[in-house]
Amino acid sequence: MPLQTRLALLLVVLGATSTGCAIYRRPLALPSRETPYVAVLSGAMPEPITMVARHGWIVANVDKDKPLLRYELLGGASSSTTDDPFRSFASEDVALHGVMKGDRAKIARVVACLDVETPRYNEEHPTYFPMPGPNSNTYVDQMMRRCDIPFDLPATAIGKDYRGVIGASVTSGGTGVQLETWLGGIKLGLTEGFEVHLLGLSIGVDLWPPALILPVNPGRLGFDDR
Question: CB of 24 within 8 A of CB of 224?
């Protein structure tokens, strides 16, 4: 059997296994509008790449009397208001990767940062490349790191680890470091675990919560992330 066929079969098996055997997945529910928060979400991409790729975005609630804010890269990075924070152009497979709560002043500071960094992202990354980036997940990862939103996108959010031809940074979760090149890279963190990257694809081990990091949706086999 050719090597390419073996790898394809392995990805299919891992995808079926990870979908059926995830021990716990965070419920898809946001706090009430009474609670200021910032949340990071993603949705699976449409066929034919739905098993191996996701698209991320950020939702913020500063004031219950004002619309929810949504930060996303679709053509270009921008902010908008929304009445459906779970809306995904790709599929119904939407996942919540973290919710940061705080008082109104704290969340307003994060939103102010997002409003500054979003146009700056467009200036820094005028081009778009699906793999390895920069793309929509590169935008979300950069916003999390620059605006102190301590969450991680899943392994299948291709582009989250893009750092240019070569670059180093703290991890989006803020507890580790990573070194990346256009071809591949490595990430090591207390909460992010250990990952190896190749052309935007990730494989590794998360120590807590325990899980295998896999390049097929939902991106991990084991307990859902924090």
Answer: yes
Please compute, for residue 62, the number of CA atoms within 13 A of its CA located in the half-sphere on the CB side: 14
Q: 156: which 2 tokens?
A: 């299948």
pLDDT, tens digit (0-9, with 9 covering 90-100), for 183-212: 899 999 887 789 999 988 899 998 777 889
**Biggest distance spanned by C-alpha atoms of the chain:** 61
Structure tokens at 145: 């790191």
| Helix (H/G/I), strand (E/B), else coil: 226 | coil
Angle at 42 between CA 82 and CA 103, to 5 degrees: 60
Look up tokens 């390895």; give the residue: 132
pTM, to two decimals: 0.86
From start to end of the chain, where are the E strands? 37-44, 54-61, 68-74, 76-82, 94-101, 166-170, 176-181, 184-189, 193-198, 201-206, 211-213, 220-222
Task: Check: CB of residue 147 under 8 Å from CB of residue 117.
Answer: yes
- DSSP-based three-state secondary structure for 178: strand
Report residue 103 as tokens. 């008082």
Give the Cα separation of 172 and 6 in Å (integer): 33
State the average pLDDT for the chain: 87
